[in-house]
Amino acid sequence: MTFEEMWRDLAPIGRSGSSGGYFRQPWDSAEEELRAWFAEQAAARGLTLQTDAMGNQVAWWRPEPVPGRVEILGVLTGSHLDSVLDGGAYDGPLGVVSALAAIDLLRERGVEPGRAVGVGVFREEEGSRFGLACLGSRLASGSVAWSDVEGLRDRNGVALGDVTAAPDAGAGGVLAEVGCFVELHVEQGRALVDRDAPVGLASGIWPHGRYRFDFAGRADHAGTTRMEDRADPMLTYAMTALAANKQARLSGQRATFGRLEVAPGSTNAVPSRVSAWLDARADSDASLEALVAAIEKQASERADRDGTTMELTAESVSGAVEFSKDLTDRIRAHSAWPVLPTQAGHDAGILAAAGHPSAMLFVRNPTGVSHSPDEHAEMADCIAGVEALADALSELV
């Protein structure tokens, strides 16, 4: 199947009829359909499918055995198939479809790989269900222990350990044969638009984290309680959100409150508790620490004035990642693609931090919008991405 045909097959799966966005959460029907589709595509190409207990998948194109040849670890490409809530079509699936199309292109060119080539699909990359981004690649690489995450719960109270088992990490796992990883992804910004380039390479990933702010106050009547008599945690949260915006703007970093839970959640009651999740990103580990500390300080000071309390919990923090300069230079040697940093987290960052040399290719996003139904890439740029990925794999195999 061509890239266009594969993309057309995926387009309706998990798509909302109202917003046009995608709901492809891990272990739901849409994501299961996508994983079955991937298995069918692997079988149609004669690839050997490997799946771990969590559902991470790798489809291997292995070279013909040659007597006396020393086997070396393989090259992995691919991405993920899950989405954020009401997300875009390209974040993740573009890398998977492009990887399959790149293998087709290599075969059309008559390339005979000297090492295995794998197409990987990592599960729960977005962290949209269990709250920890890149969960599949973290477990597969041994970056987190199963005992630390099996109790994570989704919005309905279902634990991770109730829907899946622990995957093997290291020997026997889906990464056991992996020597390096090259991930293709839609760009989540406008750097390639500004550079008038359809494809780019990543130099590294900004450090980033997810932090839960728990504000507690006193529930009360919305009509009879005087404003000066309230201990309203919503006010403390509101000031904290404004403080996060100001601190990020002043320092040139990123801070976003995108999720909120309020108890008891009544229109006519002052809330007793507000929990809010901050996504913070910065250009260095020190800058990230300073940004979160500044927001925490202002939140704590406001809580004192409001008669509320504030507690901060770092749910996940990922340090700065530098991609393999050797891999990036080898890939770029055959092109003039620009090299740029990214502020988004990716499975490639997890594998790089775990010791697997990694590189990333980006495909131009004309609006820069991502994690939204408006996320987009032109078909011509997608095809350019397939060709760039095929060139990269050809260089590495």
UniProtKB/TrEMBL annotation:
Pfam families: M20_dimer, Peptidase_M20. Belongs to the peptidase M20 family. It comes from Nocardioides humilatus. Its cofactor is Zn(2+). It comes from the Bacteria. Allantoate binds at residues 210, 268, 281. Residues 210-305 form the Peptidase M20 dimerisation domain. This is Allantoate amidohydrolase. Zn(2+) 1 binds at residues 80, 91, 185. Keywords: Hydrolase, Metal-binding, Zinc. Zn(2+) 2 binds at residues 91, 126, 371. Coiled coil: none annotated. Binds 2 Zn(2+) ions per subunit. InterPro entries: Amidase_Cbmase, Bact_exopeptidase_dim_dom, Peptidase_M20, Peptidase_M20_dimer. One of its GO terms (molecular function) is hydrolase activity, acting on carbon-nitrogen (but not peptide) bonds, in linear amidines.
